């Protein structure tokens, strides 16, 4: 009885080569599908995106394991996924152009304080989601932002507006005038 249980746990129901090829095929499919789905699927998750990603893993589970529910089959499948991911990351690290092709390029979504609506539509980011991301990074409103870039991982980076040289100079002149006024007032007294 005990030996039969251990045999059932560890005996493969599929050939080893098939157990290795299934996760590789699903891995490649998911990389391509997520790349085509856009950056939003990777970081700016709303409840719908989260549900899709969670059910996606369950959907492809049977394609990865086939009809084999053995521990050995699970270890081979998981090990294959980890190994193929390591090899892909290592390969892409040494091939920058190919990495950009696979991962994509960053996109500017706010430039010179102007929200680029076409980029928001392309990335499926609503104005309220953009504002929420800006709030998380400490900005009170989108009016405070000079540039925003969404990187291939889906993270959005904001840079605030800097005062232009004329505004800075104007502030300095006003400050000097106030000091001079205070000095004149002291001299008159």
Total domain units = 2
Question: How much of the residues is beta strand, in percent?
Answer: 5-15%
Number of helices: 8
In spatial order, strands of the major sheet run 2-1-3-4
Low-confidence stretches: none
Mean of all residue-level pLDDT scores: 83
Query: Roughly how many Å is the radius of gyration?
Result: 28 Å
What is the strand tally? 4
- What series of H and E elements makes up the topology? HHHHHEEHHEEH
Report the sheet with the most strands, covering strand number, pairing sense and barrel closure: 4 strands, antiparallel
* Coarse structural class: alpha+beta
State the distance separating the first and last CA atoms: 106 Å
Quick one: overall form?
elongated
| Fraction of residues in H or I helices | 55-70%
Description of the molecule:
The protein is α+β, with helices and mostly antiparallel strands and 189 residues long. It folds into 2 domains: 2-103, no CATH class; 105-189, CRO Repressor (2-Layer Sandwich), CATH 3.30.240.20. It is 65% helix and 10% strand. It has 8 helices and 4 strands. The chain has helices spanning 2-10, 16-37, 47-65, 71-93, 96-103, 117-123, 127-136, 165-188, and strands at residues 107-111, 114-115, 145-150, 156-160. The chain has a 4-stranded antiparallel sheet. Strand 1 and strand 2 form a beta hairpin. Helix 2 crosses helix 4. The N and C termini lie far apart (106 Å).
């Amino acid at each position: 009885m005990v030996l039969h249980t251990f045999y059932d746990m560890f005996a493969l129901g599929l050939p080893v080569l098939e157990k290795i090829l299934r996760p590789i095929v699903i891995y490649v499919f998911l990389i391509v599908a997520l790349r085509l789905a856009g950056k939003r699927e990777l970081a700016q998750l709303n409840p719908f995106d989260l549900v899709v990603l969670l059910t996606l893993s369950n959907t492809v589970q049977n394609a990865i394991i086939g009809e084999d529910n053995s521990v050995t089959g699970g270890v081979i499948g998981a090990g294959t996924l980890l190994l193929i991911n390591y090899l892909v990351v290592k390969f892409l690290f040494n091939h920058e152009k190919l990495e950009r092709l696979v991962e994509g390029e960053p996109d500017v979504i706010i430039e010179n304080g102007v929200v680029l609506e076409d980029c928001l539509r392309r990335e499926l980011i609503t104005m309220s989601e953009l504002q929420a991301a800006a709030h998380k990074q400490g900005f009170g409103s989108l009016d405070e932002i000079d540039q925003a870039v969404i990187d291939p991982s889906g993270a959005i980076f904001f840079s605030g507006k800097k005062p232009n040289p004329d505004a800075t100079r104007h502030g300095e002149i006003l400050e000097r005038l106030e000091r001079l006024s205070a000095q004149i007032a002291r001299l008159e007294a």
